[in-house]
Amino acid sequence: MSLLDPLFRQHLDRLDRRHTRRSLLPVRPEGAGRIRRGGRTLLNFSSNDYLGLAAHPLLVERACAWAQRWGAGSTASRLVCGTLELHAEVEAKLARLKGTEAALLFNSGWQANAAVLPALFDRELLGGDALVFTDRLNHASLHHGCAAAGVRQIRFRHNDLDHLDGLLARHAAEPGTRFIVTESVFSMDGDRADVPALAALAERHGAFLFLDEAHATGVLGPRGMGLAALAGGRADLAMGTFSKALGGFGAYVAGSQALCDYLVNRCGGLIYATALPPAVLGAMDAALDLVPTLDAERARLQAMAERLRAAFHGLGIDTAGSSTQIVPAITGAEEDALSLSRRLEERGILGIAIRPPTVPPGTSRLRFALSAAHTDADLEALTGAVADAWSAR
């Protein structure tokens, strides 16, 4: 028993009363688009494995081969002796695909956002304060990075570039380097930012554009390399992950050589973290070979999402601004989301309830994430189960 256990229990009791307590439930993969949980096989519509690469033979084979050749661990941080030749090879391949001068690997998307933003907002670097303009619905890791840097966020309404433009104009006379920090695809609403318009706005106001591509990488943009390519080289930094559509683990930052060299010298999340191990790098390398060849899978994924949105709209379900492989079903109240999730699980469907603080109060939902591993029959099973469960509310 710890000294704070009574306080921990009080907090957990409050979460129970609000229907916002979370718990860990182990699962086991059961083949394409399926998992086993609680003794049952369920159709999995909650995974970020958008291209079905997590179990792809090439990723598994190369992960095993690189572990056999190079060992289980990298043994140190990147600046000590943890930078293997493999890190440099994967970073060079990624930069070529992203069309940037350089790329830098990180251990996770959370780590990248939480560590890179404070390095960018450093007063010694900028010679003063940063003025940071952020989308209200940015991922928690982006908010955390801003908080860690001690900067005040100037928040614009979600995907409202007119509001952003107005805020930039209002603060035009204030000293400080301007930053726009946003996502290209938002993980809870499944909508996307207008990246070309964002880039033009950043250029007009002299702002550094930081673009989180975690849920776009692999799925959207030329060769599946994200929406930053639509900015015509005007996105100053693109962050993305290997842990979603690319089927493995880890994250990256892509941008100029000077940017990456600076982060090597100033970004604590890279300087003090043990480097990614060979098996993870092998899966990364294989995914980078595969993803540019998967245009047909990407097209099918978007077509399935269109069908799912149409089915939900026919049932009167609000899907927010979804235009991607992520399709939310907004319930509003936390208990309604939990109840709908339970009814779907009884029908063999895994649809996880998302509640505050992950989403704003009053917008609890089931977040359905489609995968190229899903079949047409799987999609029909989902729409049928949702129709039954929704009508039984």
Structural description of this entry:
By secondary structure, this protein is α/β, with parallel strands linked by helices. α5 (about 110-120) packs parallel to α7 (about 140-150) and α13 packs parallel to α15. The strands form three sheets. It has a seven-stranded mixed beta sheet, with helices on both faces. Strands 1-2-3-12 form a four-stranded mixed beta sheet. It has helices at about 5-20, 55-70, 80, 85-100, 110-120, 125, 140-150, 160-170, 195-205, 255-265, 270, 280-290, 295-315, 335-345, 375-390; strands at about 30, 35, 40-45, 100-105, 130-135, 155, 175-185, 205-210, 235-240, 250-255, 325-330, 350, 355, 365-370. It contains 15 helices and 14 strands.
Structural class: alpha/beta
- Poorly predicted runs are none
Rg, rounded, reads 21 Å
How many runs of DSSP E, i.e. beta strands?
14
Which percent range describes the beta-strand content? 15-25%
Tally of helical segments: 15
Average pLDDT: 96
Distance between the termini: 41 Å
How many strands, what sense, and barrel or not for the largest sheet?
A: 7 strands, mixed
Lateral strand order in the biggest sheet: 4-10-9-8-7-5-6
Order of helices and strands: HEEEHHHEHHEHEHEHEEEHHHHEHEEEH
Helical amount:
40-55%
What's the shape? globular
Family: Belongs to the class-II pyridoxal-phosphate-dependent aminotransferase family. BioF subfamily.
EC number: 2.3.1.47
Subunit structure: Homodimer.
Pfam families: Aminotran_1_2 (PF00155)
